[in-house]
Amino acid sequence: MDQRRITILGSTGSIGTQALDIIARHPEKLTVHALVCDRNIELLEKQARQFHPKVVVVNDETRYKPLKKALSDTSVEVRCGSEEVSLVAGEYDADMVLTAMVGFAGLEPTISAIKSGRMIALANKETLVVAGKLIRSLAREHSAVILPVDSEHSAIFQCINGEQGRNARKIYLTASGGAFVDCSEDELREVTPEMALRHPVWSMGKKVTIDSATLMNKGFEMIEAHYLFDVAPENIDVVVHRQSIVHSMVGFGDGSVKAQLGLPDMRIPIAYALLFPERLSTGVALPEVEDLATLTFEKPKRSLFPCLDLAYQALAEEGTATCALNAANEVAVSRFLGKEIRFTDIPRIISSVLDTLPVRNAKSLKVLRAIDEEARKAARIWSPKN
User: Fold this and answer.
1) Segments in the chain below pLDDT 70
2) 45 Cβ partners below 8 Å, 6+ apart?
3) pLDDT recorded at residue 202
């Protein structure tokens, strides 16, 4: 494989920093073309000095001048603003774009990258949740290859890669269960943001950690899996696997099931996407026999975690329902972290928004932006009295 030039959207976040760790391990295979962040210019400056990208972009325009001054002694081009983020995502000098921006904000740059025919290493869940049909259509039109970065979807991809016709019959989407897998309904009502942010296995950003606690992340991943692998939602089962060693499984028509296993470390799926089809060192150890001795699997308690069923409901409604689902969830999680609402109010807000907003044809980014705005507004004004 020739040296692959990488643009990272969200370079200062958890996925972005781990991706740069992989790039640093394999300078003969990987190099950085561009780095993009929202506002953490202190870390972005350090990354720019270490990896020497052609260009860096900070989304927050108020951070442009300090970053420009900080990098004035280098040859790195400095840009700012959301329009520049999308422009950089579609630049032809990069071979691959890693989309690791969180939330709806990652959609437009990902579309820009797809339209340029780049290889896409997709770590932004919301892209397929919000606009799955549109993304799939654009990828076919522009011959863009999408490689999943989420550990679960990477596992599924690894299981079906090389299979004739990729005839997956069933997907078993594994979940750690989050911080409250054994809690009662009464206990869930008393959950605080501090409690919810203590994930038992993974180290992630705040928003993703809360999504894990509500199981909304599994709902999002179910929607992603549907669009990535063309498997009907009724054939995608969410399975609680507390040890997070089996990252997902695929069942085939002959009755066989394949699984991908590994220690819970995101560098494995990140490296698989960045270096595909090669497998090179990640710095992650292989599991020991003791790690494999007590693997368990169980069904989630769906009555206690209604976000999962809300995701299946939104996908069944098609159109813009999944866009509204994502927007309402982002606002609800933000309100919970700000201690405005209870943990158990998160699914109540989402359900209210889905019931209120009409479902439209998700035919364009303009329609999706409008629904996103409407859903956010409805979620912001929701109160427990509703």
Assistant:
1) 1, 165-166, 199-204, 386
2) 67, 70, 71
3) 63
Closest CA to 309 of 385, 233, 202, 254: 233
pLDDT of residue 92: 79
**Cα gap 6→11, rounded to integer Å:** 11
How many CB atoms neighbour CB 27 within 10 A?
11
pLDDT tens for residues 202-256?
666 788 889 989 999 999 999 999 999 999 999 999 999 999 999 999 999 999 9
CB 121 within 8 A of CB 153: no
Nearest residue to 236 (alpha-carbon basis) of 350, 314, 156, 132:
156
**β-pairing, 257-261 with 246-252?**
antiparallel
Contacts with 136 (C-beta within 8 Å, 6 or more apart), sequence order = 227
pLDDT for residue 1: 67
Task: Give 65's Cβ-side CA count (13 Å radius).
Answer: 1
Contact 8/55 with Cβ under 8 angstroms?
Answer: no
Report d(CA 122, CA 36) in Å as an integer. Answer: 15
Tell me if residue 179 falls in helix, strand or coil: coil
Work out the angle between the directed axes of helices 345-356 and 206-214 (0-180°, nearest 10): 90
Burial 137-149 (b: 16+ CB within 10 A, else e): eebeeeebebbbb
Closest C-alpha to 181, from 238, 249, 262: 238
The two tokens of residue 380 are 């912001």
pLDDT digits (tens, 9 = 90+) for 268-298: 999 999 999 999 999 999 999 999 999 999 9
Separation of alpha carbons 315 and 217, rounded Å: 14
